[in-house]
């Protein structure tokens, strides 16, 4: 188990991504995935109020609704739910009134008394940061949210948020959610991790498996044969350098009797300040690999080998 920042949230070091619920996983499959995850010891799910508004016929909130129905049906003890605000079509941005309305809507969809971890999904520079920070602080004071966090914020803006929170006397964020994995390292390691270390914040990275590339499924830059909605984005990493990372993961995974994906998650989990990588499963069969990643402990030499072979930056992200 691992603690998220200075919070009391103590979780298995893996967060199940809820972005697929209501998209590539329908309600029944989503329930089965959540059952398998929880049955295997998982206790932390990540979603957002905007998931999955991009799907034809959806309006946003579908993922939260499915998770809420699962929570009501299963009543899992100690299960931690994280969600986000700023991208829902009806609740766009981080103005104070919008943050409050969006949080209330998320609480209703999830069927919880309070959201365990509430992220500002994307920075909104059209709103004074003081207004957003105060709004998040009020949610904690009023009991709608237990802890706050930020996602996709620059190091400079995170430092500013913390300064303002201290000035206002409201709760500081406890976590940062950045794009971070073996093929996307430099920005996070150079700017975000130092902030996290200085202020005792935890990282909960998304795209932990590089949109599927770090499962080993994509060995060619030609994604035409793949049916996944993310195939093109994942296949971009299938360069000679990217494939060298896959080869290294395959060897290390074999030594631990786990998959390439599990080895990739284990490397990420071993990085400074990372509490719980986020990874999603659109089928029940994928859940075991994710749980293996949470429990696999790589040796220092294995971590160093993966760090060495992945010291590169893709031409596009």
Number of helices: 11
CATH topology of the domain at 2-177: TIM Barrel
Could you name the CATH homologous superfamily of the domain at 2-177? NADP-dependent oxidoreductase domain
Instruction: Name the overall outline.
Output: globular
Q: Label the structural class.
A: alpha/beta
Q: Pick out the low-confidence regions.
A: none
Estimate percent helicity. Answer: 40-55%
Strand order of the largest sheet: 11-10-9-8-5-4-3-12
β-strand percent reads 5-15%
- Radius of gyration, whole Å: 19 Å
Annotation, overall tally of beta strands:
12
Structure description:
- There is one protein chain.
- By secondary structure, the chain is an alpha/beta fold.
- The protein has a domain at 2-177: NADP-dependent oxidoreductase domain (TIM Barrel, Alpha-Beta Barrel), CATH 3.20.20.
- The protein is built from eleven helices and twelve strands.
- It has helices at 27-39, 62-74, 96-110, 129-141, 155-168, 186-199, 231-235, 240-256, 260-269, 287-295, 300-309, and strands at 2-3, 10-11, 15-17, 44-46, 80-85, 87-88, 91-92, 115-120, 145-151, 175-177, 202-203, 278-279.
- The strands form three sheets. It has an eight-stranded parallel beta sheet with strand order 11-10-9-8-5-4-3-12, covered by helices on one side. A two-stranded antiparallel ribbon has the order 1-2.
- α8 crosses α9 (260-269).
- It is globular, with a radius of gyration of 19 Å.
- The protein starts with a strand and ends in an 8-residue tail after the last helix.
- The model has no long low-confidence stretch (mean pLDDT 95).
């Amino acid at each position: 188990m691992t603690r998220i920042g200075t919070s009391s949230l103590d979780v298995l070091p893996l967060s199940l991504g809820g972005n697929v619920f209501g998209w590539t996983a329908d309600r029944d499959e989503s329930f089965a995935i959540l059952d398998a995850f929880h049955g295997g010891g998982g206790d932390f799910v990540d979603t957002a109020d905007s998931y999955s508004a991009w799907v034809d016929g959806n309006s946003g909130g579908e993922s939260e609704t499915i998770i809420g129905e699962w929570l009501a049906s299963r009543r899992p003890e100690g299960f931690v739910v994280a969600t986000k605000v700023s991208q829902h079509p009806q609740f766009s941005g981080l103005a104070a009134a919008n943050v409050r309305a969006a949080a209330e809507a998320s609480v209703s969809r999830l069927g919880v008394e309070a959201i365990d971890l509430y992220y500002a999904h994307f920075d909104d520079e059209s709103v004074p940061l003081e207004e957003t920070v105060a709004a998040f602080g009020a949610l904690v004071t009023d009991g709608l949210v237990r802890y706050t966090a930020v996602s996709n914020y620059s190091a400079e803006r995170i430092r500013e948020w913390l300064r303002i929170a201290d000035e206002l006397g409201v709760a500081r964020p406890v976590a940062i959610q950045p794009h971070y994995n073996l093929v996307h390292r430099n920005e996070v390691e150079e700017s975000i991790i130092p902030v996290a270390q200085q202020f005792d914040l935890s990282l909960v990275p998304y795209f932990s498996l590089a949109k599927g590339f770090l499962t080993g499924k994509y060995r060619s830059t030609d994604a035409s044969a793949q049916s996944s909605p993310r195939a093109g984005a994942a296949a971009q990493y299938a360069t000679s350098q990217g494939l060298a990372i896959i080869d290294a993961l395959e060897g290390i995974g074999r030594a631990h009797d786990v998959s390439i994906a599990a080895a990739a998650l284990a490397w990420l989990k071993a990085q400074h300040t990372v509490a719980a990588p986020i990874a999603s499963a659109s089928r029940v069969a994928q859940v075991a690999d994710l749980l293996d990643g949470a429990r696999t402990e790589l040796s220092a030499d294995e971590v160093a080998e993966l760090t060495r072979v992945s010291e590169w930056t893709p031409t596009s992200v």
